[in-house]
Specification:
With 62 residues, the protein is an all-beta fold. It has no helices and 5 strands. Strand 2 and strand 3 form a beta hairpin.
Length: 62
């Protein structure tokens, strides 16, 4: 994770494969209860293309 704004419900992931920052929304986080991510947290995810770049889908905490 690069950063995540819990109040706004989105942020950016810095993937290991150097594709650049990947947008993530709270709806894509696979977790029970309050869905939030933290800077420097490790996650795994799949990606989809969107007009502004890549978006993370099916985000799972490691």
């Amino acid at each position: 994770m690069i950063w995540y704004d819990a109040q706004k419900g989105f942020g950016y992931i810095d993937p290991d494969d150097d594709i650049g920052p990947v947008f993530v929304e709270y709806r894509s986080i696979e977790a029970d209860g309050y869905r939030v991510l933290f800077a420097d947290q490790r996650v795994e995810f799949s990606t989809a293309r969107r007009p502004g770049g890549a978006e993370a889908l099916a985000v799972r905490l490691l």
